[in-house]
Amino acid sequence: MDLKEIQALIKFVAKSGAQEVSLETEDFKINIKTGSEAGEQPTYIQAVAPQAPVAMPAAPVAAAPAAPAAAPAAPAADDTSNYITVKSPMIGTFYRSASPEADAFVKVGDEVKPGDVLCIVEAMKLFNEIESEVSGKIVKVLVDDQTPIEYDQPLFLVDPS
What residue segments make up the domains of the chain, in order of their start? Predict the structure, then answer.
């Protein structure tokens, strides 16, 4: 199963309203959990070698602290309504620059246009450049460098004016 198939599966599960879907093959095991209440909960994907079983009880424990954190985020949406949110097209690790010594692709205040590289997301040992689809000015970087990110997680706020 490749990255595009995993992304399609995540989209399908999110749209279907299912709360949990598990898929296991010889090479990996995927367990996708979604929240049925308002507030987004993370999606968990776990790659498992066939000879190394992994206990899954840790996933629900990690989801519990996320629910209270979602409530304070609601007021922040009010003052950002005129901005465009650039979201992650995949699960992976967020990098602001091509290497630790290099400058960030974009900083707060930078003007961007469609096609400009905003960041890199590493997924399954592949480095994917995330390009801007809009023109505008970077208002806020919402994710710290070298942080794990989820599919559809907000990364940047862009002022289109």
Answer: 3-73, 80-159
